[in-house]
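Sample pair:
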Amino acid sequence: MERKLLAAVTVAVAAVTALTGCGSSSTAGAAAKATCTNKIVKADAPQVTVWAWYPAFQEVVDLFNTAHSDVQICWTNAGQGNDEYTKFSTTIEAGKGAPDVVMLESEVLSSFAIRKALLDLTQFGANDVKANYTEGAWRDVSSGSAVYAIPVDGGPMGMLYRKDIFDKYGVTVPKTWDEFAQAAKKLSEGGFKGKIADFPTNGRAFTQALFAQKGATPYQFDLQKPTEVTVDLADSGSKEVLKYWTDLAKQKHVATDEAFTADYNTKLVNGSYAVYLAAAWGPGYLKGLTGADPTAIWQAAPVPQWDPAAPVQINWGGSAFAVTAQARDKALSAKVAKEVFGTQEAWKIGIEKGALFPLWKPMLESGYYKNLAYPFFGGQKINQDVFLAAAAGYKGFTFSPFQNFAYDKLTEQVTAASTGKKSSDQALDDLHSTVVKYAKGQGFTVTEK
């Protein structure tokens, strides 16, 4: 049974990641053994191979290598997101060619750990650094008592808004979702040609975060019991949230454009959207886009709440360093995973040149980060005003071992609801039944709620 299940998960991951490219075993193996992108400073020291796509990462690697005589990082950018995952999946199947350390988004950790491709880092002192991370960040890389990666960056959510547009139409910054709907209506009735925001049909983790704010816990899964999973995708909170957004779409108060297309990127900065509901990496993403409205005045505010007396903080994205089962020196690889972003100097590079949001508390709670002013936001201290509280309040999330499949089906159902092909309630009922059927077909014992 477990062999069938692991094989099925392998197929599911490969099928999804193949959408963005496919590498052969020789390609993947070559990537791990290739000449390092970076310079090796201490030629006699043992090397740990690392795959990562972080912006400005070479400077972080150079800093680490200069400071260490016992180990050197040999870094390769094997592709971003699914491009890297495709290559990593190929090395797992081949049993060779994987790097020692790999950058993974937290949402796919279970999908790779269930294939026995990642090491439990508790045996290499992971819990020694647990206190350096927020509760939510640590939960996102853990399953039961096991820890499968060391957190790096995260995406606590806030609301980036066009102050100039709000001011022009007399709109008050919304603190609740009821106020957000009122603001949307006021903008539309006031003659604003755009929409208050976009509710992307392909929002995936964004949409799931909005559901989580209303109490959704779609999965219960522990890698210590890898064939068992609880699924609850049609809960009342998720249904209320999806109805809220599809109603706004029907009223033409929000857009339903697919995210991260060229058109979407243009609309983010040309005044078509008055609000960008964003993760903490959003300000850096926004700043890097071309075609911006030169009159734009951006500000950041906390994400709206359903109950302001009991705020719920949510997260969109985040990544970590995992040690692969193929690592040559597992203890030394774990050292790299724990320490590469374990200094203030490394994090200043990540923040100032990579626009990363640190999950490492010595930086997260530092006066430097708290008081960092952002010229793009008129000098606003957006970490102090928004994102630090969002990070501290985030409690973590449990992803499924077939998350990519579930996200693809979520996209299908949100699209159906947003286009009026089915009700929001029916869309989530169908999502639940589809994912449950799939999980059972892959050999999981499923408990439904």
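Residues 179 and 396 are 27 Å apart (CA to CA).
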